[in-house]
Amino acid sequence: HAVSADLTSEIWEKVKNHPCYSEEAHHHYARMHVAVAPVCNIQCNYCNRKYDCANESRPGVVSEKLSPEQAADKVLAVASTIPQLTVLGIAGPGDPLANPAKTFKTFELVNKVAPDIKLCLSTNGLALLDHVDAIAKCNVNHVTITINAIDPHVGARIYPWIFYKHKRHVGIDAAKILIERQLQGLGVLAARDILCKINSVMIPGINDRHLVEVNKEVKARGAFLHNIMPLISSPEHGTVFGLNGQRGPTAWELKTLQDSCEGEMKMMRHCRQCRADAVGLLGDDRRAEFTTERIAALG
Ligand code: SF4
Ligand code: SF4
Fold this sequence. Notes:
Blueprint: H1 9-15, H2 25-28, E1 30-33, E2 42-43, H3 68-81, E3 85-90, H4 100-113, E4 118-123, H5 132-137, E5 142-146, H6 152-155, E6 161-164, E7 167-170, H7 171-191, E8 195-202, H8 211-220, E9 225-230, H9 235-238, H10 251-262, E10 279-280, H11 292-298
Helix pairs in contact: 3-4
Bound molecules: iron/sulfur cluster (2 copies).
């Protein structure tokens, strides 16, 4: 299923070597995520802070947290072992833009030591408007924003609180601020020609019916791709939504939703929901070879 089919040639130029956007590239190019961003500025009901951010990451395993310097060393070590490395992403374990100093320092160092590597960033979008210039300055290739709702009543069932302008906001008020900031951020990035992909987590009974509207809205605001991911339900994660747990969608439910959005814009269907510290080709995780200890041992 080639994601590439409907992309314009200009966008295609920017993403063709990115394993996540082209079924072709996915077999030939590698990506890595570095876990430099521990803090988050919102709470998602599907997140259990012990785990990686569900912005991009499969929940379930704690990743090793790195300083920007350690992250840059790791990029060099990986690049020298896996020459197909084309993309470095920052996706957690918290929100990269709730840790702006670490995130942008890492990008700056990587731009210096490995200028050919493309950078990407994923965020819940709350702080996006504050960092558009920094994102442009680091030459970030594309940004992923996780948008699970555009209706604050739906959002309030997903986000119990956000921390914004030195204050905790809850309920509808919190969801309203978050959604406004996400959609404005998307619009500003699109206007500045920074590629924007939208991730949505499909949560049965909460936002499953609503995601078709989300799809229309993000398309209208200039997103180039929409990636609807299934909620990954596990005993540790299920409890946050209620005592009986929250189930994830079935494969059929996910496909039906993706099909009903397909007419609207290109859908991404081969995202693997990688960990915040993933390394290697998609489906061939080599992160165990590149722990800080091992990199230090290499000198
Ligand atoms: Fe967790 Fe990510 Fe949501 Fe923050 S944005 S609460 S890290 S899933
Ligand atoms: Fe690509 Fe999805 Fe993995 Fe990110 S989480 S590197 S978009 S496959």
